[in-house]
Amino acid sequence: MAVFAGVSATEDMAYRLLGIAHAALLVVALRRPLPAWWLSLVTLPLFSLHPPLAPYLGWAWAVHAGLLFLLALRNPPRVMAETVTASTVSLLAVEVAVGGACPPPPPCRRDRGAPDA
């Protein structure tokens, strides 16, 4: 699924190849999960901060979650806790840099005919 999303997310071939390469990290993680996780962690800001890659962003985080799962199967709990913490810090840093995933809600308006309480 992630490879399909990498292929169909954009028309530019370079961006498609980047999405496919990121999805292929799941295959790499079957043998070497920690290096695959590091590569994914490095590429996630690229997907978030580069507008042409925005359609692939959800799949990028899904691939990263799969990498965390494969990492948990092959490493001790301490390593898993460290990788989840680093992933969370990365997510929060990207969200702050982008300005948040959701725009702020509109200001609350009162009806002009209703009296103030």
Name a few traits of the molecule.
single chain, mainly alpha
Characterization of this structure:
- This protein is mostly helical.
- Helix content is 69%, strand content 0%.
- The chain contains five helices and no strands.
- The protein has helices at 2-8, 13-29, 33-49, 57-74, 77-98.
- Helix 2 runs antiparallel to helix 3 (33-49) and helix 3 (33-49) packs antiparallel against helix 4.
- The radius of gyration is 19 Å and the shape is flat.
- The protein starts with a helix and ends in a 19-residue tail after the last helix.
Instruction: Please give the alpha-carbon distance between the first and last residues.
Output: 54 Å
Pick out the low-confidence regions.
none
Number of helices: 5
Helix content: 55-70%
| Total beta strand runs | 0
